[in-house]
Amino acid sequence: MDHNKAIGKQRSRRRYRVRKSLRGTAERPRLSVSRSHRNITVQVIDDIAGKTLASASTADKDLSKSVKYGGNTDAAQAVGKAIAERAGQVGVTKVCFDRGMCKYHGRVAALADAAREAGLQF
User: Fold this and answer.
1) How far, rounded to the nearest angstrom, does the alpha carbon of residue 3 sit from its chain's CA centroid?
2) What separation in angstroms does the CA of 24 have from each of 41, 49, 51?
3) Residues 120/118/57/86 CA torsion (nearest 10 deg)
4) How far apart are CA 35 and CA 63, in angstroms?
5) Which residue(s) pair with 52 in the sheet?
């Protein structure tokens, strides 16, 4: 089997396994993380209403000015702080963490730690 196909299958299995038990509610929305090589994006989602309550990304104009490169742990920490502030403005303090297909390691872990330090409870 092609190596890239095998990696894709692992990621899709991991995504389904992680997300089958997570549902964002109004009291405890879902903090969804997606990352690429250049950027990292986070959304606070209420799945019952089907609405995104807050979002932050290294592609945002506010954060892209303060971050030199969006694909490293420094950028992930900046996005974690930003999402905690934006979620607090909406009135969200507790979230359930949805890492999606990403392993809890590196940039994803740095983002989660920064969000916790800024006031979000997982």
Assistant:
1) 26
2) 17, 9, 10
3) 70
4) 15
5) 45
The pair of structure tokens assigned to 109 is 């872990």
Query: Can you give the pTM of this predicted structure?
Result: 0.84
User: For the residues 53-57, what does the mean pLDDT come to?
Assistant: 96
| Strand extents, DSSP E, 11-106 | 30-35, 40-46, 51-57, 96-98
Least confident piece of the model among 8-22, 28-42, 68-82, 89-103: 8-22
Enumerate the β-bridge partners of residue 120.
none
Q: Bridge partners of 30?
A: 45, 96
Q: Which domains are seen in the chain, by residue range? A: 3-117 (3.30.420.100)
Residue corresponding to tokens 């969804």: 32
Distance CA 56, CA 48 (A): 21
State how far the Cα of 24 lies from the Cα of 31, in Å rounded to an integer.
8
C-alpha dihedral, 64 to 67 to 72 to 77, nearest 10°: -100
Decide if pLDDT at 26 tops 80. no
Q: How distant, in Å, are the alpha carbons of 58, 59, 71, 79, 113 from that of 64?
A: 5, 6, 11, 10, 20
